[in-house]
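User: I'm writing a tutorial on reading structure tokens. Could you give me a worked example: one chain, its sequence, then its tokens, then a sentence or two explaining what the tokens reveal?
Assistant: Sure. Here is the example chain.
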Amino acid sequence: MHQQTEHDKNTAAQVRLAARHFAMLYFNFCKVMVDTHGEEKALELVQKAIFNLSLDRTDRTRAKALEAGVETNLEQFSVFNDLPIIGWRAWDESMGGLRCPYAEQWVDYYDKHPWFKPFASLYCDVIDTTNIENFSRTLSLKIPQKQLSGDAECKFNYFESDQIKQGIYTYGEREEVLSEAEQKKRENAKIRGMFQLSNEEFLALDEVEFKARFRERLHHTLEIQVYAAAYRGGKLQPAQTATGNNLCELWKQRGLKEDEHEYIYAKKLIELAEKLIAGESVDLVPYAPVPVTAEECESFFRIIYQRRSVREFTKQRVSDELIDRILDSGLWAAHSCNLQSIRYLIIREDDTPGLFVGSDVPGGPVHLVVCQDERVYKANPFNPVRNRLLDAGAAAQNIVLATHAAGLEGVWLTFNEPMLKRLRAHFNLPDYISIVTYVDIGYGDQTPYPVLRPHVKDMILGRC
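And here are its predicted structure tokens:
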């Protein structure tokens, strides 16, 4: 027994030496890629290379398992895996400081080459995840702990994945010739996977993304369908409320308050849908906007036509209450998929001078900065960038009109890079908050001659 143990240790030492040589090769490969392409592009290319390597390896191991007539499950993966496990298992403190020879080699690079840390982690994530996915075609895995991140050991959580069953891998796509129908099928499955999270995945989201997905799913699975049924005689399926009801249950499981606007709106939509499914009519008349009078209509267009970009202001202080009312109008602007990304910064020039130095116009007494929380757009990854800009633009347009309607004046402006950096640093904004535009407001102290506009008939490119 002692002789066998010594033999195992000697074999393991040789395997570990070979593994460290591979680890050195991988580091130098990554370094050349980074030097040639930059970190971001290099990371993309290295991931693709590792993914294809994993497919090649596990295509062979899977074929061996199938030839042997065994199931391609987790147990058989350990049997047919071509990694010499002895280099990781037959180990004691005399063989090195870490159980993983890759980690043993790679962590030494971190201090002098900090860019390498994500590359090291990427290798383990892609190779281990793709190996099990391609071998089993049912399982995926997460690595919640690994020595490359400073943990004492690596741990793997395996779980069944509908996406893997549909041929959608975590770190890449197979380069194979598919029929048009199969391509469409996979594309649809991939899209469904982006939106149809499991309950566990929903509960694991941060609160901002959870609420955004809550709003987006209600919009696309219930809101549109309810109004189509209520006004056009469309039919709702008996299970039409299933997504909404499940989301409301998850809302409660997270301990969120039931008096928040998302939850109230969801329950109302579900109530309307249930009536329509039961064959009842719904009365939406109480929610109809108050009809606009002729005088109010004229006032609205007068606000549009008489609003000016005013760049000089009096010293009269604008109340917080009026500022909040103006900003509230921005939140009521149309917003794609009801994702509600708009956030604000309010800066009084007298209280915090200097943040807007470099603007090409005299600074207003109050700067209203329109920001966006980019986390909400994870709820709909197909929402194009132009829609995000429109979301912010719609809010800013409401703000400039509300400013004029409230008896103030304003000017809609944009930033230069130094201003953006000062704002981000002053408020310590996280990366997911984008700063888009701003409106300076105050009590106007000038009357600009109106910038004239062309006649609308001259601007129409076509009419059907």
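What the tokens reveal: The mean pLDDT is 90. The radius of gyration is 30 Å.
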